Amino acid sequence: MAGISFSQNGLTPFQQLLGHNKDILDKWVSLEDCIFSSETFSAELKEEVRRTLAFNNGCEYCKAKGAPSESITDLQTQLAAYAANLSGQKTHISPDEFRPLKETFTDSELSELLALICFITACQRFGALLGLEASCQI
Description:
Distance between the termini: 11 Å
Oligomer: single chain
Largest sheet: none
Radius of gyration: 16 Å
Helix content: 55-70%
Protein name: Carboxymuconolactone decarboxylase family protein
Mean pLDDT: 91
Low-confidence stretches: none
Structural class: mainly alpha
Order of helices and strands: HHHHHHH
């Protein structure tokens, strides 16, 4: 059971928790649309980041959608999951930890990848703080 009531605004349980302030919800959804409609990274890479972060951030709602993959063959997806794991452990990445990312991604891609990681983290932590569970129904 979520820590607060669901609002009438939003299409998902997450959105309905955020929807108590419609202006925030609208801007949040707009940013989400921008991030997930970008063609810089594949849908598979974005989903692997989301799955990895769900277990780092403790969001039961997101964890229920699936565990991180155990057999990733794509180098970019492997490194995106690596970056997501690092972000769950610390707030600073050492030059040695950052090196494989710089060798594979452009600065523009790294900026977008880290923005994706931070956005998903914010979503998942919001859900975790409010006790959003897989069984939450709207």
